[in-house]
Design brief:
68% of the residues lie in helices and 0% in strands. The protein is mainly alpha-helical and 108 residues long. It folds into two domains: 70 residues, lambda repressor-like DNA-binding domains (434 Repressor (Amino-terminal Domain), Orthogonal Bundle); 34 residues. It starts with a helix and ends with a helix. The mean pLDDT is 89.
Length: 108
């Protein structure tokens, strides 16, 4: 199962076995052992698949969802998120105004 998914990633990224082996930090014969299911996928390898090849760990482990993280649409910004951003901007503006007022008082 994981070996098949590893091979799907390799083919989808148009990589040779040697190239994906180098990315994963393993030898090409060891890649074949992962591909054939003789070796189990490690957490370190999952991390490399995610970070260097954009692979969704959920897809890799469960076969569900999109293969690549970049294919997963980001969730729409909620009203709460928008309000938080507005407040952060307002907070920065107020800090700048206070700094200007402080300088005026200190300079007198």
């Amino acid at each position: 199962m994981f070996g098949e998914r590893l091979e799907q990633v390799r083919k989808n990224k148009h990589l040779t076995q040697q190239e994906i082996s180098a990315i994963l930090g393993i030898t090409q014969p060891n890649y074949n052992k992962y591909h054939k299911g003789y070796y189990k996928i490690t957490l370190e390898m999952l991390s490399v698949l995610k970070e260097k090849l954009d692979v969704s760990v959920d897809w890799f482990l469960n076969g569900e969802g999109s293969m690549f993280l970049s294919d997963i649409p980001s969730s729409p910004e909620t009203e709460k998120d928008k309000r938080i951003k507005e407040l952060e901007i307002e907070n920065e503006r107020l800090k700048e105004e206070l700094l200007v007022l402080y300088r005026k008082v200190v300079d007198k």
